[in-house]
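Shift notes (night). Ran Probable dual-specificity RNA methyltransferase RlmN while the centrifuge was going.
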Amino acid sequence: MAEPVKLQFTAPKHGMPEKHFADYTEDQRVELLGEMGLPKFRANQIAKHYYQRYEADPSTMSDLPAAARTEVAEKMFPVLMDPVREHATDDGHTTKALWRLNDGTLLESVLMRYPERATLCISSQAGCGMNCPFCATGQSGLDRNLSMGEMVEQVRHAAATMHAEGGRLSNVVFMGMGEPMANYKRMISTVRQITSPAPHGFGISARNVTVSTVGLAPQIRLLADEGIPVTLAISLHTPDDELRDTLVPINTRFSVEEVLDAAKYYVEKTGRRVSIEYALIRDINDQDFRADMLGRKLRQALGHLVHVNLIPLNPTPGSQWDAAPKERQDEFVRRVRAQGVTCTVRDTKGQEIAAACGQLAAEENAVG
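Came back to this:
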């Protein structure tokens, strides 16, 4: 098995935050509480507050000794994220939150409410080092990886919001700012905290968690071996290496063939269908021959366990890139389906609130 590739595209501008409850293993929590003079069972008690009641303020944990609450708060629950602003659209069903981290770094998360589910799109990095030219986050560069605490806290905040509304957070997608696979160890620990039953995690079904990647083949294989049946989404955007080297620069290290081989391994290990993300860009990757090639390559590599998720491009301000027209989109879908591959167009929620990842942060930085 190949080792995961360590990726260093841009030197991070900031250091990691203080350690949070979600950053510690269960044994480490017990040890830290022991240093405070608290017995082992308190760790489980606090975990129930955090993962079941979505509480991160020990002053509200009434079954915790009053004398211990301040020290527990200081040592285990630093405030990692402060809200900067929130935008709502779709009659309030979609809300995008911009958060400021302790070092001034900005990150975004999007909560999308549907009749049958509530989906949270979280960020795994502040910024992104993949440098895809049509992506707002890619244009901003990489600030740093997010900690487990910062990722888990995005989930807790959204779960608390849904609970307060009388609903439940049912789905989490790692499709916000950053490349999740480039922050692999923290990402997979976050996935375990999302999917483990309480009091070890939020108890969200692994099948309702999606991990997106631009195609880091060794990490895709690692994910396949984790034994967690999450949905794998690969941002392919074109089926040929010549164009993909430009649209997704990491392709110069992991070719389309290597990425699809890794996806095939994932399908064989998990039995899960892989989602192929394809941002349709006018006159760039929307040609008939690319639709035919995409369908053919996917069918050959993955058989019926693949689904193409066509994404109408949400152009960033001042960008040279534009969405393909509707008739081109429809023909592209038809041609992919003609190759025997399922293909649908993504519901583009929240476009009017700069919901393409990185746009809200870019606007805030421009103002600031």
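The chain is about 35% helix and 20% strand. The two ends are 46 Å apart (CA to CA).
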